[in-house]
Amino acid sequence: xxxxxxxxxxxxxxxxxxxxxxxxxELRAWMVxxxxxxxxxxxxxxxxxxxxxxxxxxFLILCLLAExxxxxxxxxxxxxxxxxxxxxxxxxxACLQRAGLVVRTTVCGDKRGVRVALTDTARxxxxxxxxxxxxxxxxxxxxxxxxxxxxxxxxxxxxLDDAAH
Length: 165
Prior knowledge:
- It is built from 8 helices and 3 strands; from the N terminus they run αααβααββααα.
- The chain has helices at residues 3-10, 25-52, 56-66, 75-82, 86-98, 120-144, 147-156, 158-164; strands at residues 73-74, 102-107, 110-118.
- The protein is globular, with a radius of gyration of 19 Å.
């Protein structure tokens, strides 16, 4: 039995709806999802800090920008997409800019508008570490869920199913 199988076997089974439970199925499913994402986030925090030397929140910004056109996004869009206050985002972007991972530019025709985009350095760093980071996520999910829960998660996120095999 592999290390992840042993951990998974020791995980308590997700309670099933019996019709007389206190929580409805949707709330129970949400709680399982939160627990799984919490496990992933906890594992990623240390790996991201070690490999990229950025905080987890800064890493989320880099991931968001990596999926955008090369000219990036307006700061307001980044804040909205990540659900972050603009003041906190401004600080995080400043840290990433000092590290040489993002650039800020003004939006033509809008004095207050600012765009943020990844630098080539950041793109290369993400390319170099993506397999390790994806493996960390995959293992954290495998360790925090039983087989039925993993199957349900893979049904929601098909790429996870492909990566697990």
